[in-house]
Amino acid sequence: MLALRRYLHWFPLALLPLAVFLLISGGRADRFTVTRVFEAPAASPVAVTSSPVDMVTLHSLALVPQEFFSEPLALAGWRRLAETDPSLADYNFHDHQVLAKALEALSMKYDGQKKLTISYYGPDLVLGRKLVDFYMARLLKRMRAGYHRLPAAARQGRGYKTPDHLQISESRLKVISHRAWWRSERAGTAFLVTVLPFLLLLLYVGFREFTDPSFKSGRQAARYLDLPILGFIPPLDSIIKNLADTDDATTEL
């Protein structure tokens, strides 16, 4: 314990790696929101992929986004894209868990201002942009097919966008970066960054004490010299502190 008290002023330095880790983690964006917005009437026709003639409205499709994202033809097209895109080489979308995790990061909604939004929220900016662009392009393709399925008379006066305007270039892309000083997934790293410096410091203190040839107590000196000890001179720090306390007590009286 005496050795620990001698080096106690060093221990706050062991928290320095944790402070640096939190500073770097908090200053780096690790979550992204990628959004594409397309304006179209709620009743805009969207072709049903399982039928050559059926259609649904844009608003009704937006009410069941997971059906849109997990539609078999869409998943097949996404896998083909991922296999040929070098930026997605780290992902195996034939693994159902990997694919499901990617789709969980997607959302789609239609608001009252005639805006259809497809969004991604997650840690991979490149993956987010690819997913949002892919599904927005697929939606617009189905809207173009839906427009052609409508009878010519049904297209008049409804405000439906023509196929020339149902292009991804007509949509707006927005990217937002998110930063946070703490996230639950950093707990393991933060624990190691905190504990390891303390362990290293303890090892260093033990090494210093082990290699220190000085006597730590009068009894240690007596055993080493094999001589009787008549008395000890106490540390001056304790004497000075006791004298100061006595002076303070006398002054108060």
Helix content estimate: 40-55%
- Contiguous low-pLDDT stretches (5 residues minimum) are none
The spatial strand order of the largest sheet comes to 4-5-1-6
Could you say how many structural domains there are in total? Answer: 3
Structural class: alpha+beta
Using the CA coordinates, give the radius of gyration: 35 Å
Number of β-strand runs: 6
Shape: rod-shaped
- What's the N-to-C terminus distance? 37 Å
Give the integer mean of the pLDDT values.
Answer: 87
Count of helical segments? 11
Major sheet characteristics = 4 strands, antiparallel
Strand content: 5-15%
Protein model, in words:
It is a single chain. The strands form two sheets. Strands 4-5-1-6 form a four-stranded antiparallel beta sheet. Strands 2-3 form a two-stranded antiparallel ribbon. A hairpin with a 4-residue loop joins β4 (106-110) and β5. The mean pLDDT is 87. α2 (16-27) runs antiparallel to α9 (187-211). The radius of gyration is 35 Å and the shape is rod-shaped. The protein is built from eleven helices and six strands. The chain folds into three domains: 1-27 and 184-212; 29-178, no CATH class; 221-253, no CATH class. The protein has helices at residues 2-6, 16-27, 58-62, 65-69, 72-84, 96-104, 125-149, 152-155, 187-211, 218-225, 236-252; strands at 31-39, 45-47, 55-57, 106-110, 115-122, 172-178. The chain is α+β, with helices and mostly antiparallel strands and 253 residues long. The protein starts with a helix and ends with a helix.
